[in-house]
Amino acid sequence: MPDRRKRATIREVAQATGLSPAAVSYALRGIQTSERTQERVRAAARELGYEAHPIARALASGRTGQVGLLCGSLEDYWQQSLAVGIGRALLARDRYALIVDAGGDPARELALARRLRDQRVDGLIVQPLDPAAELWAELAETVPVVSIGDSLHGGRAQGEVVFDNRRGVTVALEHLRGLGHRRVTVFTSTRASTPDRPADVYVHAEAQRLGLRVDVVAVPQSLGEATEVAARVLGRPDHPTAVFCFADSIAYGVYAATRELDLRVPGDVAVCGYDNHPMSGLLTPPLTTVDWDMGGIVDAAVRLVVDVIDGVPRRRRVVREPALVVRASTGT
């Protein structure tokens, strides 16, 4: 028979310890009581099988224990890995990730951000599709916001883990130029509605400095759509000799397109990615890409948001430096 006993109450813990229910509540929350009392109360709670009801705990503390994680598009394999890492890191800190997917739609992203705020998450981690949206400054007034990738409009985010995109773009384009490429197509998931994202701006600046002819093409992050766009570009008689993709998931679409077109990588077209997903080293040939240290990104973002929630002062801005991982896809 299943155990149908009622959940132990805080009054039962109080009776077992000889304390008032209020003192037990304080001790379980680690406030206004000595460490010795807190340990005694927690031991009694464990013995009785007492667990604080999540709704009651949220009402008492003003916190839900949930952190919203707003992903730009979970069709991007790198963002899938990011969500897994952040979810596990938050759980290790006794928080729970509420993961939502904007599906590559900036309007949907903003609607979901409002919904997460209205659900009273304790904090919000976002990898924004549209970092220039005015909503971010408004949200930051009511909920701690930490961004990954780009700084948010208004500069009011409580934390940011940003990438040195200028350096990332530079090492990739310098690598391709050093191999003799002068015509490069850059595939980016940035939409026409958000044209000023730093990485895309740096492409044009670095291309001019290096004397490269660069065409920037917007590509959805789903494998099928990325393959379709890549096939159109590479199917032209004057196709580029190199492709630089702002996501490894887009590069996978380029690989699929080259097989459809019977093109060789890197013989007919060199391919470079931008986030070093674990699958990239397993491709044939393995993909040259830019690594940003996923573990470091996860650790920094979670530390920032948890410290802000807990009122712990910390450096607000963390800059991730790139490392080019050279593999056979660029013909080294």
Protein architecture, described:
With 332 residues, the protein is an alpha/beta fold. It folds into three domains: 10-61, 434 Repressor (Amino-terminal Domain) (Orthogonal Bundle); 66-163 and 293-321, Response regulator (Rossmann fold), CATH 3.40.50.2300; 165-292 and 324-330, Response regulator (Rossmann fold, 3-Layer(aba) Sandwich). The chain contains twelve helices and twelve strands. It has helices at residues 10-17, 21-29, 35-48, 54-61, 77-92, 106-118, 135-139, 165-178, 198-210, 223-234, 248-261, 294-310, and strands at residues 66-71, 96-101, 123-126, 145-149, 159-163, 183-188, 213-218, 242-245, 270-272, 289-291, 317-320, 323-325. Helix 1 crosses helix 3 (35-48), helix 5 packs across helix 12 and helix 8 packs parallel to helix 9. The longest helix is centred in the C-terminal third of the chain and has 17 residues, at 294-310. Residues 1-5 have low confidence and may be disordered.
Topology:
Layout: H1 10-17, H2 21-29, H3 35-48, H4 54-61, E1 66-71, H5 77-92, E2 96-101, H6 106-118, E3 123-126, H7 135-139, E4 145-149, E5 159-163, H8 165-178, E6 183-188, H9 198-210, E7 213-218, H10 223-234, E8 242-245, H11 248-261, E9 270-272, E10 289-291, H12 294-310, E11 317-320, E12 323-325
Parallel strand pairs: 1-2, 1-3, 3-4, 4-5, 5-11, 6-7, 6-8, 8-9
Antiparallel strand pairs: 10-12
Helix pairs in contact: 1-2, 1-3, 2-3, 5-12, 8-9, 10-11
Question: Which CATH architecture of the largest domain is right?
Answer: 3-Layer(aba) Sandwich
Q: What strand line-up does the widest sheet have?
A: 2-1-3-4-5-11
CATH topology name of the largest domain, in short, is Rossmann fold
Average pLDDT, rounded to a whole number, is: 87
Number of helices: 12
Strand and helix order: HHHHEHEHEHEEHEHEHEHEEHEE
Count of strand segments: 12
Q: What does the overall shape look like?
A: elongated
Helix content estimate: 40-55%
Supply the CATH class of the largest domain: Alpha Beta
Beta-strand content:
15-25%
Q: What distance separates the N and C termini?
A: 66 Å
* Tally of domains: 3
